[in-house]
Batch of 3 targets.
Target 1
Amino acid sequence: MDIMRRWGLCFVFLMLAPWGIAQQDLVLTGDVNGAQNKAYFDIPFTVPPGVHRISVDFHYTGRDQRATLDIGIADPHSFRGESGGNKSHFTIGEADATPSYLPGEIPAGVWRIIIAVPNMRPQVVSHYTAEIHFNSRAEDASFTAKPLANGTRWYRGDLHMHTGHSDASCQSQSGQKVPCPLFLTVQAAAARCLDFIAITDHNTDSQYADERELQPYFDHLLLIPGREMTTFHGHFNVFGVTQFIDWRLDLNSMLRDARAQGGIASINHAEAPEGEGCMGCRWMPPADADIGLFSAVEVINNGFNMLSSANYWDSQLRAGHRLAAIGGSDNHNATTPPGDVGAIGWPATAVEADELSVPAILDAIRRGRTFVDLTGSRDKTLDFEAEAEGASAKMGGTLHTAHATPIHVSIHSIAARGSVVHLLLDGDDSNKPLPLPGDTANTTINAGAGRHWLRVEVHDERGVTELMSSPLYINFPEE
């Protein structure tokens, strides 16, 4: 108490609850006066059990009179970093931290905000506030506190990439094969004008520290936390989660863990080769796998030279699962030139979101507002809607009909003139292709009673697939 009186500290507790039931956010306040010029002091606070992330916002008055307070932090056992006066906000998590600070375990006990007073004029009193937040959901899910862009449009990105944090390699300055630095991947994605990427290194979360450092600099390119859960029965990506997920657990437990943390999961390269040439690459889930816990299927993977998993995808749609279409380069070398197998941004996943943020991109994937651009272009778009009996739905939505009735479909595709549209009903491509003399094609189909789905592919004049849409559902139950 003597120390608290000496420095004029005051502790304010928010969200009061017993330890172990809910973590308590804190507000610590106090005053520093001229007598403390050129002094150091600590502000102690208690971290309860069960905390995996601490975030600090530090502010003080008197700057107009050259008052200066520098900050750092220590856990009960060791120093965790010091940023002087260059940061008013920082976060420390188990896998990532703001530069200047060390990620790692968050031990329960007494932590200390470390304050240095480089300058305080004799008559000045500076009032400080340190807001301590535990387990910030927003910082667990993203490396930026605000959207990088606003406005509803199609944002394009690559949702499957690797770096030296797993098995990516590239040539060093002297031409040696070395683990490829994550910076090169982000730089290449920015150079190709992508809006977002997810770096999905295998079963690891060490890449997140690098991404948290790079995100403020790459403020036109959203870095989505990702990882490829690499198991004996196949691979799947988890997006929007930075906490550790144990890949050795049963599949459903992993998926529920990711969902509980606000993330989504996609099945990767489901129809990849199997055997010793690519161990665990083909998707062969256990019999009790709950596919309904997935949000998407990687229908195109370019690490296997534009491997399509559309047959598997259709089989799961046939079983009644709602799964969006996404694609990924599966890049393992950031220096791979555009047009080569596995080049960054080829294919691209386009997502219609109302802003460029992790929550908005993930929500758009959940809603099926996606298409895959196999050409990796910046301008091609694909969307469609269906109408019957006075009701209508867009791609990703559900059209409810009471009878076997004609369904009118309108398909919109920009920058694809001269190509043809294939409208697949229940995975069947027997409908006559529709020409695209402009940006819109219209047709009427008869789906019959019961549950169905529609999806669209755009092919060029050679018959090569350019675009693949997510489904539009007919008489599917709402989730």
Target 2
Amino acid sequence: MTGPHMNPAIGVKSGAIVALRLFDIAYAIDLARAEALWAQRQGGGSSRSQLSATPAKAVAFDVPPVLLSLDAVPLHLDGNGLKAAATARLYDFGVVALALRIPVADCDWAAYTRLCNAAAQAIDGALWEELLGRVRRPLVQALHRPYDSGVQEDYLLAIVQQWSEPLKTAELEQRLDLVPLLSGDKRPLSEGARRELLRQRFSYYEDDLVVITWDRAFIVEPRGDSDVADVLEVANAQLLEQRYYDELLDDELPRMYDLVEQAQRARHWYAPRRFADLARRFHALVAEVTELTEKADNALQVTEDVYLARIYAAALELFRVHKIGAAVDRKLAIMRDTYTALYDEAAGRRGELMELAIIALIAMELVVAVLQLRGH
């Protein structure tokens, strides 16, 4: 797409900027328990998430996540003091998605772009950690095997609900330059880079638009639906979960090789037990990772809503969720082969010990028989 003809009269009459930060904080979260614990807080509000505009039979959460309301957060962006509404969404597979929503009204396009870029740069890790602490502390009893993984994902949503004048999608792409907003770069991009940045764009009605990139999305939704934003959040949660287990297995595989080598050096009569213990350990880890990754993969089912399904599939592809998931599956396959080999090795060693024991018993019987003959 060539550079659009800019029209300074076009602005954002109403919209929002939503900054997301996702954390993997536990093996699993008991959502019912989390709701009950949050309700005990003074003014603690929560609700089960569902897609607002899409029929349940077309798109549905496998286990609807819990949305928690937090106190508003003061921010200073682009020279302005603002208040951001804060929420936390809990997924049963252990992920928390924090969101800061900054309302925008009567803002020209250049100022809106600057505000988006300022939000991406100014909301730092310390603020996210402080918000995470507000969520985690009251919910400790709802966390199953809590941990600090250190793996995080962030994403920025630039949302427009109403323009300063009626604007159709085809007209919008010609009159507004989306690249500075989506890239965060102040320097002009090459034509190839611009095309790649705008490659994943979708429109269903003549006045809506979704453009997704690796770390940002631009959403024009005149009807005020949040379905696209929710789907992009789920895709980020799935990415986070796959990344966590990919890194976990990266650490576990070298340790596995070392443990197998140690077991092979064990004394012959102790080796079967060592092999069996290792096999059980690896089997438990494989079962755990498989359960959680499948739960994350099935977090959202998109069946009949073709438009939302295309956006969801494009996000999963763009975020490389399936590629990382395939890497996790390959590492799990190595571990499965390893624990199968360990079980076989343990069985073989036990068989050898049984044979030696039988031979020893036969030898003892022969010795006893010879001694008895000599006694006579």
Target 3
Amino acid sequence: MLTNYIRIAMQKATYDLLEDGTFYGEIPECQGVWGNAFTLEACRNELQDALEGWIILGLRLSHTIPIIDGIDLNFSKEVA
């Protein structure tokens, strides 16, 4: 499930070539997740690293992780 979430989120990433010649990438559904590097491949790698850390921290702090294409990483608390 986590691997699929990361794969699908990365497919939704947008990239821009900045005036300084570097690439900037972000995932609109995942607020604050971005990468910046001198090559597109390096930018993708930074973006994926940022996404993975963002997910881990979000889950650890019980933040709500956006549902992407039906994949829900959030813990649901069952009521007894």
